[in-house]
Amino acid sequence: MKKTRKLRSQKVGLAPGALVHVGERRTAQPDIALFEYDAAGLRETRFDSIDASRGHVRGPGTLWLNVHGLHEPEVMAEIGRRFNLHPLVLEDILNTDQRPKVDEYADYLFIVARFFEYDTATGSVGSDQVSIVLGADFVLTFQERPTGTFDPLRERLRGDKGQIRKLGADYLAYSLLDTLVDRYFAVLEQLTERTEALEDKLLLQATPALLKEIHEIKREAMVMRRAVWPLREVINSLTRADQRFFKPETQPYLRDIYDHTVHVIESLEGIRDLIAGMLDIYLSSISNRVNQEVRILTVITTLFMPAALIAGIFGMNFRHMPLLADSEGFLIALGMMGAIAAVMVTAFWRRRWLG
Asked: How many domains are there within the chain?
């Protein structure tokens, strides 16, 4: 977080569109993968630098360029020059804390989404920015690091499975968004399992450690909710946009993604309600425990009040008092204290104040 703030401060005073990477460096060096395909075949090429790609000649069909690692602005500048990307688009790609959005330009769409993964070791949810540029016959994707999210999509291209090779760039962009949203369900399942397990522990005994874990889950769910809500609006705007970028045959698939995002939001709302219920259970358990302890202390104090009264009476410095000269006076006083205490314990027990 400190590194991100430092880099953000470097942008102060710079012109709009200045290429400054904002975020953590997630890879040693950028990795560029190129897929060129049509119904007839597929050509796959990898580049480890911009210089290595200068002699490449583009083939026919749809082009998918994926970049892992966004910490070298020179790479972004070269890609922007080749695909005629607006400087503000390049700036948003390098600024890795963008909220999901869609910007429409003359020849392409710029879409920002978030990738989520659940870390079972720490119980936390990680988030990376995924930027997508959709043109008439090309798709550009930019990721902070390799996550393997789009590996099944690459295998479908290599194996010519389904209709992905036969359809254009818009179907590829849909497939990328669909893969991201499907990933949300996997994270939601793990969050839900953790929340339900925590609820079972809370019903047995409320502890400060459980309260800390409740707030951690609440924070993770809030982070996902902040990303999915605007993504729903992004998908909704894509379904209502003109047909320059998404063909009519692709629109039903986009509507399906929209339904999935609504489902994710409803699941997050369910987790939030469950967390609110657990907070109520925790507060009720703590309040009940305090009431029980106060009741026990009150009973003990009440039992000793008659004894303190008797001891106070016989402790007064009067010359003539009953039982002071009696050899059995001390035992009689103790007996009175014990008898009154026994009567009070019996009364408390019958009223169920001791349990």
From this structure: 2
